[in-house]
Write a structure and sequence with these properties.
homodimer, alpha+beta, five-stranded antiparallel sheet, 20% strand
């Protein structure tokens, strides 16, 4: 269990009073509201803040941070609480800024295929609002997260293999810094060589350097044609080798999702997928022109056959596709339904694709040896995969066993030249892998943190300890 | 003229003696060698260092910086000196580290489509060495620059429109920091959400935060098919509008290069391009499968016709293509040949594509009003274009006139939501636009510089002044 280190709390009462004076009812100290803001969707114990303030503007965020800076009070940004590694937990209490009401899309520029929005806009809201423009925002981490939260954790998801991650899809940001100053990073040009890449520095900084309040986001044209396919394989390695061959052939595939036999068992039941076996399975999606989609599908079909995939059929039927997408999105709930009374621990790693098969097969063997139920799903085109580990409630033997499984899996990823998290972020849960992964580079991260947030008020004790 | 501020030089003799003791003959104080290292290819007056050291390893760079840190001596990294904005000029003298002998390709991983190399490898050397692997490195800024220099200036070039810039094509770096410590940033996984994006922070930092000594670089499969086309337009706006329409149609074009009438005049003469008129012209290149290249070419042909482009013909003939590519690469020399006795000033800006036509047309009018000869070439798919301004030798009236033309052009780009440099970088030449472009964000850049390089020894007086 993570130590919440409440001992290091100072007395915040003066600062909290100052905030209450300005924000009145919107500065909540209600115990339930604070409790709801003390955790994301992950397994890490809730750590409620002392106050939650629902903000409407960048200026309000600036006001709050200015006061928190004066009184040295921790400040945590909160979107809709879908993070998995304890990113929003208030380790030392303090003030949580809830940005969910900052949900305005400020500008859509169809000609430039970009938009500007407030950080509290969710990805489903954005795509709903874009539906008449012919454009869409592709990044899809599964959860209906806020764009601000996705930026802060450098999120990606099912179609990053084609469209990239948040890192590649943000042009610029408005950020409120640790002293309350508001800056704009980046711009609207597609590229720039003018100075330090502050945009990329704040993306993935998990609120530890400043709070992202607005985002200039790249959009993409809705493809003229979309097709999808499913294929099942005799074993995990054959499925993964197919994925690797596809990537190495530079087929511009839009989604290539792995579900192992355990996950398929869960999804067949939960999402009523008919006609599938409990075998390692790849879901494919192709975007492009009619010709290109056909060509991609055929090439993938050939590769899939070479690795023993069963009868490969592709379809442009959107009903089939939506059912598959939905099943993929519901993989978490399906996995959970394998043992409804247990808790879930979701974790992810990412490795170079040449090591993916070995890393996955070793991890699968490791799971089997633990006896835990832990379905695997993966964005395998990127070398990224997830475990959903089911453990008894409370933090008994299964929890401990799961934690050591996660430890081994992360160290394995790092030893394969990979990373302890492809997309979930570090938060609290993965802090102890950072030195293993980054070695001496950690001191540069600490120098940056110290210079941008000298009082360590911005989401303290996340990513690394000072 | 830029003030070289030699007044702020300290006495470096003790530190230089310590370096000479370690490096012997490789620590050159020869006046000619120092003079050759005092400038890139740009117009900014040479500012020689006091010593040039030719290094062979990261460890040697670390040794040098450790001593320079101790004696507070400026340290400047030098590859092959192709930069354009005074990046390598030794404003306050000091030690230039020449990395051109660190030109080893350390590892090529065909399965992961990446490689690791020393910073002194040039892009032509890399592609030559890769020729049997089926892979290539696409970023092509024209000059045969080193990969280290390209990383440090966030370079891009003709096919960034498809393959991205150095920002998108680097997985990780080895960097020697201002205190001599060596760190490794990033990794080999395709994506990661583990901590601050130090890789992106060093890319484009122009040697002001540390010296990049090794690079983990993404590679791409050589396309199965390549075709090219040329089309000429009645006026600049029609050419640009064609480019914009292509981008907005999401055609995955690999190159879309604009040459204005003046540049065409120069290139027809210099590169012996037969059958072309002195009119605004687009060069196109398509990468993909046979079908996809055909489809892309046809779609572009249709769009081009709509905007009054002349007879659009595409060809898969590599001889034609190489001639066009060569002509594009030689645009600089062709432009220069319009008035061989004059000096050249090359400058670039980048704007959102919706503003590109207006920005280009206004700039063209501005050039005409000055009476200067200044051909335009552009990577218009990215909203990026260049002027090559020809001015009398010495720094008389034409030079002054060119400088104010550049000022207006940069302020115009910024007012259009763009940037003062799409790919050349800031160096000395564009420092005064930084505050206009980035506003309050400059203080965050300064905080970072101060924390990572507290003695201001790393390429001082570049990008911004402290």
């Amino acid at each position: 269990m993570v130590d919440s280190s409440v001992n290091s709390r100072r007395d915040y009462s003066q600062g909290l009073a100052a905030l209450q004076e300005i924000f009145g009812d919107r500065a909540c100290v209600d115990i339930n509201i604070c409790a709801n803001h003390g955790h994301g969707e992950g397994y890490i114990q809730s750590m409620p803040p002392d106050m939650v303030i629902f903000v409407n503007s960048t200026e309000e965020i600036s006001q709050i941070i200015t006061i928190c800076n004066q009184y040295i009070i921790p400040v945590i940004a909160f979107g809709v609480g879908t993070s998995l590694e304890g990113h929003v937990n208030a380790v030392d209490g303090g003030v949580t800024i809830d940005l969910s009401q900052m949900n305005e899309i400020l500008q859509v520029n169809p000609q430039d295929m970009d938009c500007r929005l407030q950080a509290g806009v969710t990805r489903e809201q954005l795509n709903h609002d874009l539906r008449t423009t012919g454009l869409f925002f592709p990044i899809d981490p599964g959860a209906n997260a806020t764009i601000g939260g996705m930026a802060a954790t450098r999120a990606s998801g099912t179609n990053a293999v084609r469209y990239g991650t948040m890192r590649e899809n943000i042009l610029g940001l408005t950020v409120v810094c640790a002293d309350g100053k508001v800056i704009r990073t980046g711009g609207r040009a597609k590229k720039s060589a003018a100075g330090y890449d502050l945009t990329r520095l704040f993306i993935g900084s998990e609120g530890t350097l400043g709070i992202i309040s607005e985002i200039q986001l790249k959009l993409h044209p809705i493809p003229m044609a979309i097709s999808s396919a499913v294929c099942q394989y005799p074993d995990l390695k054959s499925a993964v080798d197919t994925a690797i061959a596809i990537i190495q052939s530079a087929i511009p595939i839009a989604r290539i999702e792995l579900l192992d036999d355990v996950q398929m068992k869960a999804s067949i039941q939960y999402s009523k997928l008919e006609g599938y076996m409990e075998k390692p399975t790849l879901f494919f999606e192709f975007h492009g022109s009619d010709n290109s989609v056909k060509e991609q599908s055929e090439m993938v079909g050939e590769l899939s056959n070479e690795f023993g995939g069963n009868d490969f059929k592709w379809s442009a039927n959107s009903e089939d596709r939506n059912k598959l997408r939905q099943a993929r999105h519901n993989a978490y709930y399906a996995g959970k339904s394998l043992s409804p009374n247990r808790d879930c621990i979701a974790t992810d790693i990412c490795v170079p694709i040449s090591n993916l098969a070995e890393c996955l097969v070793e991890t699968k063997k490791d799971i089997e040896q633990t006896g835990l139920i832990a379905p695997i799903v993966g964005h395998v085109g990127d070398g990224n995969f997830h475990l959903l580990i089911l453990v008894d409630k409370g933090q008994g033997e299964e929890f401990k066993c799961a934690k050591s499984l996660i430890n081994r899996m992360n160290m394995r990823a790092i030893s394969f030249g990979g990373t302890c998290t492809g997309e979930h972020g570090v938060g609290i849960g993965k802090k102890h892998f950072m030195a293993h992964e980054h070695g001496d580079a950690m001191y540069i991260m600490r120098l940056i943190k110290k210079s941008l947030d000298p009082k360590n008020i911005m989401n303290p004790k996340k990513i690394f300890d000072m």
